[in-house]
Amino acid sequence: MTDIVAGSRGSRVWVNAALPILGAVITIGAWWGATAAFHIDPFYLPSPVDVIDSFMRTPQYLLQETWTTLQRVLIGFVIAVAGGLAIAVTLAASSVVERMAMPVLAAVNAIPKVALAPLLLVWMGFGDSPKIVMVVLLSFFPVIVSTMAGLTSTPADLRELARSLKASWWQTFVKVRLTWALPQVFVGLKVATPLAIIGAVIGEVVNPDHGLGSVIAGSGASNDTPLAFAALVLLALLGVVLFYLVAGIERVLVPWARTINS
Amino acid sequence: MITIDGVSQTFKGRSGPVEAIRDINLTVGEGEFLTVIGRSGCGKSTLLRMVAGLLKPTAGAVQVAGETVRGPRRDVAMVFQKPALLPWRSVEDNVMLPVEIFGWRKSEHRANADRLLEMTGLTAFRKRLPHELSGGMQQRVSLCRALIQNPKVMLLDEPFSALDALTREELAVELQRIHMELGTTMIFVTHSIQEAVLLADRVAVLSSRPGQLRRLVEIPIPRPRSFGHNAHLDQVANISAELHSLLLSDAHLPRTQTA
Ligand SMILES: Nc1ncnc2c1ncn2[C@@H]1O[C@H](COP(=O)(O)OP(=O)(O)O)[C@@H](O)[C@H]1O
Ligand SMILES: [Mg+2]
């Protein structure tokens, strides 16, 4: 009995920590192996060692740029989440507004955002704002869609319960629908996190000043592929950290969700 | 306490109107335990939802405590087939939900919640979340949540039908105790003859499609009653047989005859 429990706990540690690390090690190993085996020119595909070298040459600079990008991502993401939630709640409250607004929102979402970057430059010039706006544009829609889906998925028995207690619309909304929607909201947040980073990078590549996107744009001009890869790796790490941060917040806020869905 | 006066309900279904309930007349006395029994789909839930004020009758009216029912009332509590608990709320917070929604002062009702949890054997589980409880315990929580309203009337829609046989019996006996202790007027919908005979003062047998009142059967067995061995086995057997034949014979009646 104790053996079985200990075994399952051991395998949980294995699944949660060791497997992801193993996956990363295998991926980096394959990358390294490929560059070594085929003698690939670092100009086309630098090896992991070249990338680390490149990072170690100017670590402070790269971390500074990472911080800049992270700030833009976070500010834009917070705006997108707050705005997306507010819009979703408004749409869920009134089917008239929903009918009117949904096609417009879907159309805005369908516009290729890269095409907007030059316009943002015209409207806002250089600096943080056009990048933050790009982050918002890319990440707001999944938040709206998932929140709406959550708000309209309240089970019939809970709706009937609220009615039988004569709960007001607002009481039903706050005490039942909103909390019920949280697991779905987090699905949207997890989709939106990488999009937020992509938004910041688009803004920085098209309209470079600071940030990792600007580093990539600059490295292209100076044929420094390892530096571009160093920036890409930092962006990827940023993505992973933010994703797990959101997942961690979800665990704290909706501990009940896992058990409901399983 | 409750007067059901010529109540009918016809739904507008996709393929034409569906007559669910036709012209039901019933009175339920104060403190009475009425069971409504009928085959599934015969309109039991529909009837109960009309008494609860969740559904407006297409004809007739329901009165509770002398007032015509126009919507849900605070002194009428419902218990559904599913426990309908909020999965993020602990047992005691689920029980307190009606208090919050009614805007009652929580501190005044805490003691009552404690007493109800005690009465249903949930005290040790008060901090647990619903998914950590068995189906039977979840349904006990939903009973407590109904009782905290201090209802004059409780409407129970097949509350135990999703549970296993033993838990059902256990909860039915518990509900009998609650009824004896509090004297709340109850309408209890079921398709179990056993439950009906254990709990009811009177059993209303509905015919199917459309649901009509087929017979009112008195159960003059003294309480507390119990499943299995007791002094009234013959009576229980007779009444059960009668209910059985009423429910079964219904299937052979042609539509025109029930109309
Ligand atoms: N909202 C509704 N719209 C249309 N038909 C309904 C609706 N609710 C119930 N019915 C129909 O009314 C009949 C009685 O349903 P119900 O009261 O749920 O039966 P029971 O509870 O006895 O199983 C069924 O035929 C059902 O399909
Ligand atoms: Mg039913």
Can you walk me through this structure?
- The complex is a heterodimer of chains A (262) and B (259).
- Chain A is mainly α and 262 residues long.
- Chain A has helices spanning 2-37, 48-57, 59-93, 95-110, 117-124, 128-151, 156-164, 169-206, 212-221, 225-253, 257-261.
- The longest helix of chain A has 38 residues, at 169-206.
- Chain A is flat, with a radius of gyration of 23 Å.
- Chain B contains 9 helices and 10 strands.
- The A-B interface holds A 155, 157-158, 160-167, 171, 175-176, 179, 254, 256, 259-260 and B 52, 54, 71-74, 77-78, 80, 82, 84, 86-88, 97-98, 100-102, 129, 131.
- Chain B: Residues 2-233 form the ABC transporter domain.
- Chain B: It comes from Paractinoplanes ferrugineus.
In short:
The complex is a heterodimer of chains A (262) and B (259). With 262 residues, chain A is mainly alpha-helical. Chain A has eleven helices and no strands.
Q: Secondary-structure blueprint of this entry?
A:
The complex is a heterodimer of chains A (262) and B (259).
Chain A: H1 2-37, H2 48-57, H3 59-93, H4 95-110, H5 117-124, H6 128-151, H7 156-164, H8 169-206, H9 212-221, H10 225-253, H11 257-261
Chain B: E1 2-13, E2 16-28, E3 33-37, H1 44-52, E4 59-64, E5 67-68, E6 76-79, H2 91-95, H3 97-102, H4 106-119, H5 135-147, E7 153-157, H6 165-182, E8 185-190, H7 193-199, E9 202-207, E10 212-218, H8 233-249, H9 255-258
Parallel strand pairs in B: 3-8, 3-9, 6-7, 7-8
Antiparallel strand pairs in B: 1-2, 1-4, 4-5, 9-10
